[in-house]
Amino acid sequence: MKKQLASAKKRKLFSRPKPKSNLNPKATAQTINFAVIGDSHVGYGNSTSIFKNLLPKAVSSGNKRFVIFGGDNTQAGANHGKNANAYYKDFKDTVTNTLGSIPYKASIGNWEASTQSLFTQYLGAVEGQMNFPGTQGMVKYVWLNCAMGQFTPGSINILKNLDDQHFYIIDFHWPLKVSGITVDPSHVLSAAETAKFFGAIPAKVRDKILAIFTHHGHKFYRKLTNIYPGYTKTKFFVCGCSGDYKCTPNGNRGYYNATLTINGSVLNVDAFKVAVT
After folding, report:
1. Would you put residue 49 in left (φ > 0), alpha (ψ -120 to 50) or beta?
2. Nearest 5°: CA angle at 41, between 132 and 35?
3. What are the pLDDT digits (tens) for 164-195?
Protein backbone atom coordinates (compact mmCIF):
# COMPACT_ATOMS: atom_id res chain seq x y z
CA MET A 1 0.00 0.00 0.00
CA LYS A 2 2.87 2.35 0.92
CA LYS A 3 4.56 1.54 -2.39
CA GLN A 4 1.39 2.42 -4.27
CA LEU A 5 1.09 5.78 -2.47
CA ALA A 6 4.73 6.60 -3.17
CA SER A 7 4.32 5.79 -6.87
CA ALA A 8 1.22 7.97 -7.08
CA LYS A 9 3.07 10.88 -5.45
CA LYS A 10 5.95 10.49 -7.92
CA ARG A 11 3.59 10.50 -10.87
CA LYS A 12 1.93 13.65 -9.52
CA LEU A 13 5.30 15.30 -8.85
CA PHE A 14 6.75 14.67 -12.30
CA SER A 15 3.63 14.85 -14.43
CA ARG A 16 3.76 17.59 -17.09
CA PRO A 17 1.24 20.40 -16.78
CA LYS A 18 -1.31 20.68 -19.56
CA PRO A 19 -0.42 23.41 -22.05
CA LYS A 20 -2.51 26.53 -21.61
CA SER A 21 -4.77 27.43 -24.49
CA ASN A 22 -3.55 30.47 -26.42
CA LEU A 23 -6.09 33.13 -25.60
CA ASN A 24 -4.27 35.78 -27.71
CA PRO A 25 -3.23 34.19 -30.98
CA LYS A 26 -0.99 36.35 -33.12
CA ALA A 27 -3.17 38.58 -35.26
CA THR A 28 -2.81 38.20 -39.00
CA ALA A 29 -1.79 41.23 -41.05
CA GLN A 30 -4.62 43.36 -42.39
CA THR A 31 -4.43 44.46 -46.02
CA ILE A 32 -6.36 47.41 -47.44
CA ASN A 33 -6.25 47.88 -51.20
CA PHE A 34 -6.80 51.26 -52.81
CA ALA A 35 -6.25 52.98 -56.16
CA VAL A 36 -4.42 56.23 -56.92
CA ILE A 37 -5.41 58.09 -60.08
CA GLY A 38 -4.08 61.42 -61.27
CA ASP A 39 -4.61 63.94 -64.05
CA SER A 40 -7.69 62.58 -65.78
CA HIS A 41 -8.27 66.04 -67.36
CA VAL A 42 -11.91 65.35 -68.21
CA GLY A 43 -12.87 67.85 -70.93
CA TYR A 44 -9.52 67.85 -72.71
CA GLY A 45 -9.09 65.98 -76.00
CA ASN A 46 -10.08 62.32 -75.59
CA SER A 47 -9.64 62.42 -71.81
CA THR A 48 -13.26 61.65 -71.02
CA SER A 49 -13.34 58.38 -72.97
CA ILE A 50 -9.86 57.41 -71.75
CA PHE A 51 -10.88 58.01 -68.13
CA LYS A 52 -14.15 56.10 -68.55
CA ASN A 53 -12.15 53.15 -69.87
CA LEU A 54 -9.45 53.33 -67.20
CA LEU A 55 -11.51 53.85 -64.05
CA PRO A 56 -13.45 50.54 -64.12
CA LYS A 57 -10.15 48.67 -64.53
CA ALA A 58 -8.69 50.47 -61.54
CA VAL A 59 -11.53 49.54 -59.18
CA SER A 60 -12.63 46.12 -60.47
CA SER A 61 -9.75 44.11 -59.03
CA GLY A 62 -8.35 43.63 -55.56
CA ASN A 63 -11.37 44.63 -53.47
CA LYS A 64 -10.57 48.35 -53.51
CA ARG A 65 -11.59 50.14 -50.31
CA PHE A 66 -10.71 53.70 -51.34
CA VAL A 67 -9.81 55.75 -54.42
CA ILE A 68 -7.57 58.83 -54.50
CA PHE A 69 -7.97 61.34 -57.35
CA GLY A 70 -4.96 63.61 -57.37
CA GLY A 71 -6.02 66.81 -59.08
CA ASP A 72 -6.53 68.07 -62.63
CA ASN A 73 -9.47 65.73 -62.48
CA THR A 74 -11.11 68.08 -64.98
CA GLN A 75 -9.88 70.66 -67.47
CA ALA A 76 -12.17 73.13 -65.72
CA GLY A 77 -10.01 76.22 -66.16
CA ALA A 78 -9.84 75.94 -69.95
CA ASN A 79 -11.45 78.72 -72.00
CA HIS A 80 -11.84 80.84 -68.85
CA GLY A 81 -13.94 78.14 -67.21
CA LYS A 82 -16.67 78.33 -69.83
CA ASN A 83 -17.41 74.58 -69.67
CA ALA A 84 -16.27 73.97 -66.11
CA ASN A 85 -19.67 72.97 -64.75
CA ALA A 86 -20.17 70.40 -67.50
CA TYR A 87 -16.68 68.96 -66.99
CA TYR A 88 -17.12 68.61 -63.24
CA LYS A 89 -20.52 67.01 -63.71
CA ASP A 90 -19.10 64.55 -66.25
CA PHE A 91 -16.27 63.60 -63.91
CA LYS A 92 -18.54 63.26 -60.89
CA ASP A 93 -21.13 61.19 -62.79
CA THR A 94 -18.44 58.85 -64.12
CA VAL A 95 -16.95 58.38 -60.65
CA THR A 96 -20.31 57.88 -58.94
CA ASN A 97 -21.55 55.38 -61.51
CA THR A 98 -18.29 53.41 -61.53
CA LEU A 99 -17.34 53.37 -57.85
CA GLY A 100 -20.76 52.75 -56.37
CA SER A 101 -20.23 52.49 -52.60
CA ILE A 102 -16.41 52.75 -52.71
CA PRO A 103 -15.40 56.00 -50.95
CA TYR A 104 -13.09 58.46 -52.69
CA LYS A 105 -11.52 61.88 -52.30
CA ALA A 106 -10.23 64.29 -54.93
CA SER A 107 -7.43 66.82 -54.52
CA ILE A 108 -7.45 70.09 -56.45
CA GLY A 109 -5.08 70.69 -59.37
CA ASN A 110 -3.85 73.70 -61.32
CA TRP A 111 -6.52 73.30 -64.03
CA GLU A 112 -9.17 73.55 -61.31
CA ALA A 113 -7.71 76.39 -59.23
CA SER A 114 -9.70 79.15 -60.96
CA THR A 115 -12.97 77.23 -60.45
CA GLN A 116 -12.56 76.38 -56.78
CA SER A 117 -16.19 77.04 -55.89
CA LEU A 118 -17.34 74.49 -58.49
CA PHE A 119 -14.68 72.04 -57.33
CA THR A 120 -16.01 72.33 -53.79
CA GLN A 121 -19.61 71.98 -55.00
CA TYR A 122 -18.89 68.75 -56.88
CA LEU A 123 -15.89 67.23 -55.11
CA GLY A 124 -15.83 68.64 -51.58
CA ALA A 125 -13.23 70.55 -49.59
CA VAL A 126 -9.92 71.45 -51.21
CA GLU A 127 -7.94 70.51 -48.08
CA GLY A 128 -8.63 68.43 -45.01
CA GLN A 129 -8.25 65.05 -43.36
CA MET A 130 -10.41 61.99 -42.72
CA ASN A 131 -10.10 58.45 -41.42
CA PHE A 132 -8.55 56.19 -44.03
CA PRO A 133 -11.24 53.59 -44.81
CA GLY A 134 -10.79 50.24 -43.10
CA THR A 135 -8.29 51.41 -40.47
CA GLN A 136 -10.67 52.22 -37.59
CA GLY A 137 -9.07 55.63 -37.33
CA MET A 138 -5.49 54.37 -36.97
CA VAL A 139 -4.56 55.95 -40.31
CA LYS A 140 -5.63 59.41 -41.43
CA TYR A 141 -5.90 60.46 -45.05
CA VAL A 142 -4.77 64.07 -45.61
CA TRP A 143 -5.31 66.02 -48.82
CA LEU A 144 -3.76 69.44 -49.41
CA ASN A 145 -4.10 72.38 -51.77
CA CYS A 146 -1.01 73.39 -53.75
CA ALA A 147 -2.90 73.87 -57.02
CA MET A 148 -0.91 76.95 -58.01
CA GLY A 149 2.50 75.58 -57.02
CA GLN A 150 2.33 76.82 -53.43
CA PHE A 151 0.69 75.33 -50.36
CA THR A 152 -2.16 77.39 -48.97
CA PRO A 153 -1.93 78.61 -45.37
CA GLY A 154 -4.76 76.22 -44.52
CA SER A 155 -2.80 73.26 -45.84
CA ILE A 156 0.33 74.22 -43.91
CA ASN A 157 -1.79 74.61 -40.79
CA ILE A 158 -3.12 71.07 -41.21
CA LEU A 159 0.45 69.75 -41.34
CA LYS A 160 1.50 71.72 -38.26
CA ASN A 161 -1.35 70.18 -36.27
CA LEU A 162 -0.76 66.52 -37.12
CA ASP A 163 -0.34 64.41 -33.97
CA ASP A 164 1.70 61.31 -33.28
CA GLN A 165 -1.35 59.26 -32.27
CA HIS A 166 -2.08 58.40 -35.91
CA PHE A 167 -0.36 57.37 -39.10
CA TYR A 168 -0.82 59.39 -42.30
CA ILE A 169 -1.17 59.04 -46.06
CA ILE A 170 -0.97 62.42 -47.80
CA ASP A 171 -2.00 63.52 -51.29
CA PHE A 172 -1.64 66.77 -53.25
CA HIS A 173 -1.16 67.75 -56.87
CA TRP A 174 2.39 69.05 -57.44
CA PRO A 175 5.38 66.74 -56.81
CA LEU A 176 7.89 67.70 -54.15
CA LYS A 177 11.48 68.42 -55.13
CA VAL A 178 13.02 65.29 -53.64
CA SER A 179 16.58 64.21 -54.30
CA GLY A 180 16.97 62.45 -57.65
CA ILE A 181 13.47 63.15 -58.98
CA THR A 182 13.19 62.70 -62.75
CA VAL A 183 9.97 64.64 -63.32
CA ASP A 184 10.17 67.69 -65.61
CA PRO A 185 11.46 70.51 -63.34
CA SER A 186 8.67 72.81 -64.56
CA HIS A 187 6.18 70.43 -62.96
CA VAL A 188 7.90 70.13 -59.58
CA LEU A 189 7.53 72.36 -56.52
CA SER A 190 10.41 74.68 -55.72
CA ALA A 191 13.03 73.73 -53.14
CA ALA A 192 11.67 76.46 -50.87
CA GLU A 193 8.09 75.16 -51.12
CA THR A 194 9.30 71.61 -50.55
CA ALA A 195 11.19 72.73 -47.44
CA LYS A 196 8.08 74.55 -46.22
CA PHE A 197 6.06 71.34 -46.55
CA PHE A 198 8.51 69.09 -44.71
CA GLY A 199 9.30 71.73 -42.11
CA ALA A 200 5.64 72.16 -41.18
CA ILE A 201 5.31 68.56 -40.00
CA PRO A 202 6.16 68.19 -36.28
CA ALA A 203 9.36 66.21 -35.68
CA LYS A 204 7.52 63.60 -33.58
CA VAL A 205 5.19 62.86 -36.51
CA ARG A 206 7.80 62.28 -39.23
CA ASP A 207 7.99 58.52 -38.69
CA LYS A 208 4.19 58.39 -38.94
CA ILE A 209 4.03 59.70 -42.52
CA LEU A 210 3.63 56.43 -44.42
CA ALA A 211 3.34 57.74 -47.96
CA ILE A 212 2.99 60.91 -50.02
CA PHE A 213 1.19 60.72 -53.38
CA THR A 214 1.57 63.51 -55.93
CA HIS A 215 0.66 64.02 -59.59
CA HIS A 216 0.96 66.79 -62.23
CA GLY A 217 4.22 65.47 -63.70
CA HIS A 218 2.57 63.14 -66.26
CA LYS A 219 4.76 60.20 -65.41
CA PHE A 220 5.20 57.45 -62.84
CA TYR A 221 7.96 57.92 -60.29
CA ARG A 222 8.71 56.29 -56.94
CA LYS A 223 11.26 57.03 -54.24
CA LEU A 224 10.98 54.58 -51.37
CA THR A 225 13.67 55.64 -48.89
CA ASN A 226 15.12 58.83 -47.43
CA ILE A 227 13.05 61.21 -49.50
CA TYR A 228 14.12 64.16 -47.32
CA PRO A 229 16.36 64.59 -44.26
CA GLY A 230 14.52 63.29 -41.19
CA TYR A 231 12.02 61.25 -43.21
CA THR A 232 13.56 57.80 -43.28
CA LYS A 233 10.32 55.80 -43.40
CA THR A 234 8.19 57.83 -45.81
CA LYS A 235 7.57 56.69 -49.40
CA PHE A 236 7.02 59.17 -52.22
CA PHE A 237 5.05 58.63 -55.44
CA VAL A 238 4.12 60.53 -58.61
CA CYS A 239 1.16 59.38 -60.71
CA GLY A 240 -0.29 61.69 -63.34
CA CYS A 241 -1.62 60.22 -66.58
CA SER A 242 -5.17 58.89 -66.52
CA GLY A 243 -6.42 61.11 -69.34
CA ASP A 244 -5.21 62.37 -72.70
CA TYR A 245 -1.86 63.56 -71.31
CA LYS A 246 0.37 60.54 -71.84
CA CYS A 247 2.97 59.39 -69.36
CA THR A 248 6.58 59.91 -70.34
CA PRO A 249 8.70 58.29 -71.61
CA ASN A 250 6.63 55.43 -73.10
CA GLY A 251 3.31 57.16 -73.73
CA ASN A 252 1.15 54.90 -71.57
CA ARG A 253 -1.72 55.93 -69.37
CA GLY A 254 -2.33 54.30 -66.05
CA TYR A 255 -2.82 54.37 -62.30
CA TYR A 256 -1.39 52.88 -59.10
CA ASN A 257 -2.63 49.75 -57.41
CA ALA A 258 -1.75 50.53 -53.81
CA THR A 259 -1.79 48.53 -50.60
CA LEU A 260 -1.79 49.55 -46.95
CA THR A 261 -0.67 46.68 -44.71
CA ILE A 262 -1.24 46.77 -40.95
CA ASN A 263 0.56 44.16 -38.87
CA GLY A 264 0.19 45.14 -35.24
CA SER A 265 2.12 48.39 -34.81
CA VAL A 266 3.98 47.97 -38.11
CA LEU A 267 2.35 49.74 -41.09
CA ASN A 268 3.49 49.84 -44.69
CA VAL A 269 2.26 51.38 -47.93
CA ASP A 270 3.33 50.40 -51.40
CA ALA A 271 2.03 51.17 -54.88
CA PHE A 272 2.69 49.65 -58.28
CA LYS A 273 2.03 51.08 -61.71
CA VAL A 274 -0.66 49.58 -63.90
CA ALA A 275 -0.33 50.71 -67.51
CA VAL A 276 -3.45 51.03 -69.66
CA THR A 277 -2.91 51.32 -73.40
Report:
1. alpha
2. 25
3. 999 999 999 999 999 999 999 999 999 999 99
| Structure confidence at residue 22 (pLDDT) | 45
d(CA 59, CA 242): 13
Pairing assessment for the beta strands 30-37 and 253-263 based on DSSP bridges: antiparallel
Q: Is 243 left (phi over 0), alpha (psi -120 to 50) or beta?
A: beta
Q: What is the pLDDT of residue 16?
A: 52
Pick from 17, 4, 11, 38: which is nearest to 258 by CA? 38
- How crowded is residue 266: how many other Cβ atoms within 10 Å of its Cβ? 8
226 within 8 A of 20, measured Cβ to Cβ? no
235, 222 contact by CB (below 8 A): yes
CA distances 77 to 89, 116, 144, 267, Å, are 14, 10, 19, 39
> How far is Cα 58 from Cα 35, in angstroms, rounded to an integer?
6
Residues 6+ apart with CB under 8 A from 41: 47, 51, 72, 73, 74, 75, 111, 243, 244, 245
Predicted local confidence at residue 250, as pLDDT: 81
Can you list the residues of the chain whose pLDDT is less than 50? 1-15, 19-25
146 in Cβ contact with 107 (< 8 Å): no
